[in-house]
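go over this record:
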Amino acid sequence: MYKNEPIFLQPTLHERIWGGQKLKTDYGYPIPSDHTGEAWVISAHPHGPSIIANGELKGKTLLDAWNEHGELFNKKAGEDEEYPLLVKILDANDDLSVQVHPNDDFARSVEGVPYGKTECWYILSAEENAELVLGHHAKTRKEFEKMVDAGEWDKLLRRVNVKTGDFVYVPSGTIHAIGKGIVILETQQSSDITYRVYDYDRTDANGNKRELHLERSKQVTNVPHIDAKVEQTVETFGDLTEKKLVEEQYFTVYHWNLNGKTKRNCHHDFLQVSVVEGKAVLTIGDKTFELKKGMHFILPNSINEYELKGQAEFIVSHV
């Protein structure tokens, strides 16, 4: 099963109050409305598992594959852990709410779910002067809580300008928000816990404000905010330039720039691959697969060697 084949995945699409149409115009996805904010492109999360598009498991979900065919991911026999990672593309046609996510310990003890949420963003596109919220200016927890209670958001929130190709690492406990005009590829722990801190007093179609989670936010926010340091390295493999964006406890993420041909060996339990620009051909044994922007796949544990040929950019990750 999938011995010489990648597992291609179809995204699950989610409408959001801040979403737009770029998931259709830029990536060709069949969006459900003009306010589509998220494509869960590599997901085994029960809130939106990706559908397998090829092979013996075609039509099943990645969650099914993880539960029923753990050997594809080098999952140890008898292990009941959940699929560890989730990859999304987000189209911020408007500002996202300011939010924070808990760590594993808090998620398990308070929410009863296996994973907290550490995440990272590769900026696929950003309008001029686009910015996001990353962290806050409070020096002590008392000061932080006082500013939240008083709604002193302009004073509290730390804003950062970003451009296409930037990378942002967002550990759990970091106050953050993606700003208007930004499209990102997000690699994260497989978690859907979000504590909303501030939502610009927006209302939905029925005039209702979205729920805030201030008490939980106060409990899990890192104070003071300290920017996470990431060490990035660059290596070349044939005509492929690999930039390691982050390597830490939950995931390692790379940007690959292919300008010709490369042969690679797979040393990981499984490899998650997203084509974010261009076209390429993937060769495994005697099989070839056409790749283009907006495609996402997993190289399962059975694949040792593969070849890529073309002009393309990829975001790649593994545990």
